[in-house]
Amino acid sequence: MTVLGGFHHVKLPVSSVHKSLEWYRRVFGLEVAIEFVEDGVLRGVALRDAGHTLMLALREDPPRAAGLAGLDPLALGVPTVRELRGWSDRLDVLGVEHTELTEGSVGWLIGGILDPDGIEIRLYTHEERS
Fold it and tell me: Where does the record locate the signal sequence feature (predicted)?
């Protein structure tokens, strides 16, 4: 059988690469791994976490970004409930609105984290509820 090994990356459309890049850096601590420059203009970036466990690409495309506003297409994994509480504290310190820690279908989550285009990002534990 042919096997898949998880996601290589996820790409989100954004209205402003610069504005979104700064937000994802500040909120999630992601750093630039690759820049996509076209005709001398930065049009996209690939961001990576410090542990190299995820890659998130941002592509400047305002109409598509507007179309995703209010949708929650991205859920980032957090290993434990304890670490999820740490994320809640971090978001509070940064002044980023979010929901309280909630039981999900599988595991625990924090939702309501809106990027600059109103795209909702959720944090889910890998740890299941007991």
Answer: none
Residue boundaries of the structural domains of the chain: 10-125
Structure tokens at 4: 């898949």
* Chain mean pLDDT for the chain: 94
Q: Is 6 exposed, middle or buried (0-12, 13-18, 19+ CB in 10 A)?
A: exposed
pLDDT tens by residue, 40-68: 999 999 999 999 999 999 999 999 999 99
Rounded to two decimals, the pTM is 0.92
DSSP labels for 25-55?
HHHH--EEEEEEEETTEEEEEEEE-TTS--E
